[in-house]
Structure formats: C-alpha cells, structure tokens
C-alpha cells in the first residue's frame, strides 16, 4: 500500500467504472495528478458485461434523438453535449485503437465484439497519462476541511488527500459489479437532496393469462411499438419502438426496458394495481390497412385456414392467441370470414393489450 501524503494529488476519483475511468482520463489529459480508487479487485466490471459482453459504446444518432430516448427528462444533456458528445466518444475510442461499427438504431459496438477490449483500452489510456490506480481500496467517507472537500477516508482507516474529489461509484443497479449505492450517503452528507430511487431500465411484470400459462414465453417480436397508457384516462403516457421478448414473468428487451420507469411511476402516482399497455405489431400502418391486408392475404389462399395463412405474417404462437381473442376459429377460411371478427383482429394487431403489475427490482 502506498503512503500518500497530503497534497500529493490534484484529484481523487472514487470508482473505476466507465465514468471514473473517463474522468481520470480527462483530468490526466489536462495534466492533473490523479488517483483512481476502486473497492473491487479490478476496474470496469460493469462495462465488461455491458451490451451482452459486447459493450454498446454509444449511439450514432444526432443529439436530439439521443436526448429524446434518455429515460426521464434528458434535456440536462444539452449542456454536456455542447462540450463532449457521442461523436467525440467515437473519435476518442478510435484514437485508442478501438474501431467501432454501427448496428441497428445507431448502436455503436467495437468491431471485435469484445467489451473487454474497451475496458483494456480505457485502463491503458489512464495509466499512460500517469494516473495512480488503487484497487481493493473501499472508501468509507469523503473528507472535508473548511467547508470544502479535502480527500477520502478508506475503510482501512487511511486518509488520502487531494484538491478535488470526483465520486463516480454508480447507482444501485447490478450490485455484483460494485454498484451498491455508496454515493447516496456521501451526497446527502454533502448537503444534496435525494429523490426517490426507482428502476428505470428493467423488465416488466405482467398479469395476463398468457404469461401465467407461459404460452408466449421466449417469443421475440422485432420492430414493434410498445405503449404505456394512463390507467384512469384514455391517454397515452409513452411509446417506444424496438424489439421485445415475452418471458416467464412478463416482457423484456429494449422496448420494454425503455417503458419500465413509466410503469413504476404510474403505479405509484395513481395507486392502481396495474397499468395498461399495448403492442402495435404493425407500426406505420393504420387499422384499416391491416384489415385490408389480412383480407387480401386470406383471399390469395382461400382454401387455407386463417391460422395457416397468417402464420406466414405473424409469429404462429401469437396468431393462435390473436384469433382466440378475435373470436375467430383457427379453421375459418376466406369465404366464411366474419367482418366483425376481422375488424377485431386488425384492432388487436394495432393494440395487443397487456396489463403491467410492476417491474423487476433495481438490483435486477
């Protein structure tokens, strides 16, 4: 263990995740003498498992589209984006030798598909800039002198001093990576006000019978629109386009994760047991277009049952459920297709109902 004397460092960064590593790198590039501390046995643990182990580094979209998709109110990002935006992130990593590639919806991944390459490059860059790195060094508290930050106190009792301290310890998600909420107590001690914590990007729990009987479990839907509706009024709260998947407890996938925080907020705000949701299986098409297309599809194969026709256009397991909900028998053919039931089927394609009872926890 190093003997660190008061005034030896300009900056102490607490937390060796992506924020801490970037903060240490930025300070080092301006010539600051930096100490980076992490309580774990290696840096970038959450970064190494992000994006399914591939690391979704950033997004290639413009600032407006990115801010629009930030959970909650993303407008606070206008100011930092004016100094360092997603294009700067791309340039930063490519300068470090990490070539990136663009995938669906602008998501940027390393060409190697290895998150560890991103972690290694970041750590190497911080080391090259001369930062001191200490692992297995959990911080107990932030130190203050004369109403300003003066350093940190380790759990071992050692005190480390610097002119400034950056706390980059993360929230409470994925605690196995070290994010256990340490920073909240420090923030409160420093005089900050904390808002209620709730999960923002987690799978959603559903109360529907097809979840209970697991008839749709494992079914993935691509390029759908998932919507959250006001539980007491005929009003849309939010909608997100993307992919999703049915699970044994509800729904997950990008579209579901984006909607999850609104489920938490609505349940709490309105005091209801569940919040209505819908899936639009044909974004960009009207109900009437779906109805006419379905009619035309069955007309092209008039002797085939409607289920055997429609399974070529929609997932087969979902078709059976849609037909049941539309009061359409699976063996119905074009000649015997009732108009009312067909209208109902088109309505369901544009608004398949779900009933959300909650979400998984922050830890999950």
What does this entry look like structurally?
- The chain is built from 13 helices and 15 strands.
- The chain has about 375 residues and is α+β, with helices and mostly antiparallel strands.
- Helix 2 runs antiparallel to helix 6.
Count up the helices. Answer: 13
Look at the helices and sheets and give the structural class: alpha+beta
Order of secondary-structure elements: EHEHEHHHEEHEEEEHEHEEEHEHHHHE
- Strand runs, count: 15
Q: Please tell me the overall pLDDT.
A: 93
Rg result: 26 Å
Strand order of the largest sheet: 6-2-1-9-8-7
Give the fraction of residues assigned to helices. 25-40%
The biggest sheet, with number of strands, parallel, antiparallel or mixed sense and barrel status, is: 6 strands, mixed
Gap from first CA to last CA: 35 Å
Low-confidence stretches: 1-5
* Beta content: 15-25%
Give the overall shape. Answer: elongated
């Amino acid at each position: 263990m190093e003997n660190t004397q008061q005034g030896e460092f300009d900056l102490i960064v607490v937390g060796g995740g992506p924020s801490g590593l970037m903060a240490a790198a930025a300070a080092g590039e301006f010539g600051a003498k930096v100490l980076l501390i992490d309580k774990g046995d290696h840096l970038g643990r959450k970064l190494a498992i992000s994006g399914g182990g591939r690391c979704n580094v950033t997004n290639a979209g413009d600032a407006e589209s990115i801010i629009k998709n930030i959970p909650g109110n993303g407008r606070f990002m206008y100011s930092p984006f004016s100094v360092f935006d997603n294009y700067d992130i791309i340039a930063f990593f490519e300068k470090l030798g990490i070539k990136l590639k663009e995938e669906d919806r602008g998501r940027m991944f390393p060409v190697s598909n290895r998150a560890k390459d991103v972690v290694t490059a970041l750590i190497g860059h911080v080391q090259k800039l001369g930062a001191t790195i200490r692992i297995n060094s959990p911080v107990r508290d932030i130190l203050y002198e004369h109403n300003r930050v003066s350093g940190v106190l380790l759990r071992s009792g050692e005190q480390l001093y610097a002119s400034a301290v950056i706390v980059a310890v993360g929230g409470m998600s994925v605690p196995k990576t070290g994010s256990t909420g340490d920073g909240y107590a420090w923030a409160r001690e420093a005089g900050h006000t904390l808002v209620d914590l709730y999960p923002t990007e987690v799978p959603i729990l559903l109360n529907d019978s097809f979840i209970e009987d697991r008839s749709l479990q494992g079914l993935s839907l691509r390029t759908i629109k998932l919507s959250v509706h006001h539980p007491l009024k005929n009003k849309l709260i939010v909608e997100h386009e993307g992919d999703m998947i049915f699970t044994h407890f509800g729904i997950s996938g990008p579209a579901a994760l984006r909607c999850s925080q609104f489920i938490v907020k609505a349940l709490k705000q309105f005091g209801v047991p569940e919040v209505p949701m819908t899936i639009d299986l044909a974004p960009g098409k009207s109900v009437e277009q779906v109805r006419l297309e379905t009619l035309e599809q069955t007309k092209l194969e008039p002797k085939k049952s409607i289920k055997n026709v429609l399974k070529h256009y929609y997932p087969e397991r979902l078709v059976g459920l849609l037909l049941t909900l539309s009061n359409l028998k699976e063996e119905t053919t074009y000649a015997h297709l009732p108009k009312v039931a067909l209208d109902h089927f088109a309505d369901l394609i544009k608004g398949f109902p779900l009933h959300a009872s909650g979400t998984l926890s922050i830890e999950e």
